[in-house]
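DNA-binding response regulator
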Amino acid sequence: MIHIVEDDARVAQLIGETLHRFGYQYLVFSSGGDFLRQLRISPPELCILDLGLPDMDGMEVLQQLRSRHRFGLLIASGRVDTHDRVMGLELGADDYVLKPFEPRELIARVRSILRRYQPVVPATDGQRVAHFAGWCFECGSNVLISPTGERTSLSLAEAQLLLTLLERPNQILSREQLLNGRDVSALDRSIDLRVSRLRKRFEQGALDGKFIKTVYGAGYLLATTVRWA
């Protein structure tokens, strides 16, 4: 189920018809309050959120839901200021699309986010655990364990990014590869923001966590040995 939080009835109808055409079920909410109340009953797989809501700013909605829920979130807004895009991504949105948008672009972004939130399937019957530079990452539970034994639950977006790096250590991965093949424009720095947040996780640990290297003009590289158990 996909939730559309949009107060413009025409835009909500366009998004809904596009989703229905591609086989997705959806519900429409015209205010942030109605949407947040629905979350107490049943959260969606993905939310398409407008920022200009009648009862509260979309950024406030984003802050409230990200403090309690983990599901896909796509901002669909007419705000063209780069500051709004960066703030939305830093607050936990998975992607940001500007209005007006092509229906095919919307569906491509929806599919990309939904793939990112698919559960990680272990390669064996047991839970896979990656060991690297004194750290451990439990794939099945998205738990990161520091060299001192401190356990931290990663968001699904952070866990997917880390898993992609761990599965191909010491290889340069482009932004497109780290975003599951989605095209990256000059203004879309969402992957850079996710890498920055992930780096901060490691830098708070007992060891120097600067092993996620930036390869300028190419992408990122995990410069460490990974052992799977």
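thats it. Residues 147 and 167 are 20 Å apart (CA to CA). The two ends are 35 Å apart (CA to CA). bye
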